[in-house]
Amino acid sequence: MEMLSLVSTLVQMSPTCQVQQRLLPFLRLKILGIGQSNATAANWVARNVIAHVPATNITAIAVGSEVLTSLPNAAPVLVSALKFIQAALVAANLDQQIKVSTPHSSSVILDSFPPSQAFFNKTWDPVMVPLLNFLQSTGSYLMLNVYPYYDYMQSNGVVPLDYALFRPLPPNKEAIDSNTLLHYTNVFDAIVDAAYFAMSYLKFTNIPILVTESGWPSKGDSSEPDATVDNANTYNSNLIRHVLNNSGTPKQPGIAVSTYIYELYNEDLKSGPVSENNWGLFYASGAQVYTLHLTNSGTVFANDTTNQTFCVAKSNADSKMLQAALDWACGPGKVDCSPLLQGQSCYEPNSVASHATYAINSYYQQMAKSAGTCDFKGVASITTTNPMVVKMLPA
Asked: What does UniProt give as the signal peptide span (predicted)?
């Protein structure tokens, strides 16, 4: 397999886009090329970043995805890749607006409970120390993927389900760090604090943490009985509340941890356990998997959907009929469908259902939701669920 990695761009798209992702589709990038060539990095930034600002509010570039654990052969050039991307941003006067980092699997942290004794796998010290130096010097953050689901599944019953799902625990059930006497009411906070303590172990104490992925699967196979719609809804709803209350973690109270939900759409073609295909808030068709319970959680959706209606493609609609609806909306319907073009903001996911939902909802909205403007020969229906992405707001 060719040595490829991923560069994701954290953005806030225009509210007119159906796929309003703050985490753009991962852009494939040869880390070895970027890490060995300043010019290659500059060219990539010019094409994928400079060309899209300020229309797109890009706030961070995540170089790679769990490189140390999934692409260890690229680890020696990882910091160089970050530095070259950073240099290109400096040259474009974008380094204050856009930060550069790389997401890590939480498995790079060893002895993660109690959090106070956690440390990074020393195998990666030759990479981790210069990486943390880079993050500190550029004012960036440590990106971390946090999955309490896996901690729960791999604990052989030691981690209670309620503790993983942010459900309230009686005081005698809370986990206590015997070294600091800090109380932990959920797995998420414990993992984040383990990362803070691991950085402290290496003498870095002022680098914030950004959680680039967190979620819960809505379906699993027979060995994954707790991958359910109810648990996925409970986890993500409670996660949103937890982040938005700005309480921080026991080690860093009051310092909110900006978090991104994994993921927008189910990935039907992924291999592995059934759960691998079922982390999304929406099916590939654009239909919702579940409606998040967000009472008293503040503004979370891309737009306030209270008392609003939207027009979406039916999940069982014939693809040819959907294509016809898409063609009509983008033609006689006079919808601006340029965001659906390849390389544009709403191209992904590249499916007829997704593109049709964008087009028919845009037509429905521009017609002021008039009666009869959301039918398209029976392939569309009205919903109160905004087809745009549910997103986490930064602190």
From this structure: none
Pick the closest to residue 287 from 263, 319, 265, 260 (CA basis): 265
Show which residues are catalytic: 66, 213
- Burial (CB < 10 A; 0-12, 13-18, 19+), residue 203, is exposed
Q: What is the pLDDT of residues 193-213, one digit of tens each?
A: 999 999 999 999 999 999 999
The helices-and-strands tally (H runs, E runs) of the chain is 11, 14
Q: Tokens standing for 27?
A: 């852009």
Could you give the domains of the chain?
Answer: 11-282 (3.20.20.80), 310-383 (no CATH)
How confident is residue 297, by pLDDT bands cut at 50, 70 and 90?
Answer: very low
Question: Under DSSP, is residue 143 helix (H, G, I), strand (E, B) or coil?
Answer: strand
Could you tell me where the beta strands, DSSP code E, fall in the chain? 5-12, 27-29, 57-63, 99-101, 103-105, 109-110, 119-120, 142-145, 175-176, 183-184, 209-214, 259-261, 310-313, 380-383
